[in-house]
From TrEMBL:
<comment type="similarity">
    <text>Belongs to the ABC transporter superfamily.</text>
</comment>
<dbReference type="Pfam" id="PF00005">
    <property type="entry name" value="ABC_tran"/>
</dbReference>
<dbReference type="GO" id="GO:0005524">
    <property type="term" value="F:ATP binding"/>
</dbReference>
<keyword id="KW-0813">Transport</keyword>
<keyword id="KW-0547">Nucleotide-binding</keyword>
<dbReference type="InterPro" id="IPR030679">
    <property type="entry name" value="ABC_ATPase_HisP-typ"/>
</dbReference>
<dbReference type="InterPro" id="IPR027417">
    <property type="entry name" value="P-loop_NTPase"/>
</dbReference>
<dbReference type="GO" id="GO:0016887">
    <property type="term" value="F:ATP hydrolysis activity"/>
</dbReference>
<dbReference type="InterPro" id="IPR003593">
    <property type="entry name" value="AAA+_ATPase"/>
</dbReference>
<dbReference type="GO" id="GO:0015424">
    <property type="term" value="F:ABC-type amino acid transporter activity"/>
</dbReference>
<dbReference type="InterPro" id="IPR017871">
    <property type="entry name" value="ABC_transporter-like_CS"/>
</dbReference>
<keyword id="KW-0067">ATP-binding</keyword>
<dbReference type="InterPro" id="IPR050086">
    <property type="entry name" value="MetN_ABC_transporter-like"/>
</dbReference>
<feature type="domain" description="ABC transporter">
    <location>
        <begin position="8"/>
        <end position="242"/>
    </location>
</feature>
<protein>
    <submittedName>
        <fullName>ABC transporter related protein</fullName>
    </submittedName>
</protein>
<dbReference type="InterPro" id="IPR003439">
    <property type="entry name" value="ABC_transporter-like_ATP-bd"/>
</dbReference>
């Protein structure tokens, strides 16, 4: 694959849940290393769109190609694609009966056949990177929400993904913990990770996003640079939404 073909290509994608139209003709290309922030009101299809990228949702129409793999192609090994796409959710979903270190080493050992010692060495590096190495041996319940979310990020990174998807990673956090998670995400962005983030954190979006995508009612209504998006949005729905959250 050449460098200028998008690492994620979403073309004319629609998704129906019975009679609910969750996505309506959505098209979006994401370049390697690009950071895209998706915002929009609740129920606008943001989570559904993210979930289609690693086929946690099947699409009803259209085409999605991730790192050269057409997700609809029956011969594509979806588990292989999923290893390339890390995902972090609003709820941290750590394994409660495993330590922090075990949470991070589990998938590389099981799915990638990494040795325990190699996985632990890598996990320690990642935990250090997210600033939580000293908690390696504790159980998730002993951690704050911000700490748990940083472990969840380390766990996703342990599969060496090419793409990271974040679905409102800070919206379940107490305000004083939001910054520590956004800082980790910004660091990842600076290192060149391709990122698609659903977040309404404007400071983060302004600093990190290459483009902001605004969704409403399952459609992409506007795609703009952060500068244009926040100061001079073109779509009336965007203007109205920004007035509500700012
Ligand atoms: P957002 O993340 O922007 O809040 P979602 O992608 O979660 O929006 O939801 C988009 C629409 O699809 C909503 O109307 C929601 O109720 C519907 N929806 C999402 N997931 C399901 C599901 N598993 N079953 C039925 N409807 C769903
Ligand atoms: Mg959502």
């Amino acid at each position: 694959m050449s460098n200028d073909s998008p690492i994620i290509s979403i073309k004319d994608v629609s998704k129906f849940f019975d009679h609910v139209v969750a996505l309506k003709n959505v098209s979006l290309d994401v370049a390697q290393g690009e950071k895209v922030v998706i915002i929009g009101p609740s129920g606008s299809g943001k989570s559904t769109l993210l979930r289609t990228i690693n086929r946690l949702e099947n699409i009803s129409r259209g085409r999605i190609v991730v790192d050269g793999h057409d997700l609809d192609d029956k011969t594509v090994d979806i588990n292989k694609v999923r290893m390339e796409v890390g995902m972090v959710f609003q709820s941290f979903n750590l394994f409660p009966h495993k330590t922090v270190l075990q949470n991070v080493t589990l998938a590389p050992i099981k799915l990638k056949g990494m040795t325990k010692s190699a996985a632990e060495a890598m996990a320690q590096q990642l935990l250090d990177k997210v600033g939580i190495l000293e908690k390696s041996d504790v159980f998730p319940a002993k951690l704050s929400g911000g700490q748990q979310q940083r472990v969840a990020i380390a766990r996703a990174l342990a599969m060496s993904p090419k793409i990271m998807l974040f679905d409102e990673p800070t919206s379940a956090l107490d305000p004083e913990m939001i910054g520590e998670v956004l800082d980790v995400m910004a660091k990842l962005a600076r290192e060149g990770m391709t990122m698609v983030c659903v977040t309404h954190e404007m400071g983060f979006a302004r600093e990190v996003a290459d483009r902001i995508v605004f969704m409403a009612d399952g459609e992409i209504l506007e795609i703009a640079s952060p500068e244009t998006f926040y100061t001079n949005p073109s779509h009336p729905r965007t203007q109205k939404f920004l007035e509500q959250i700012l």
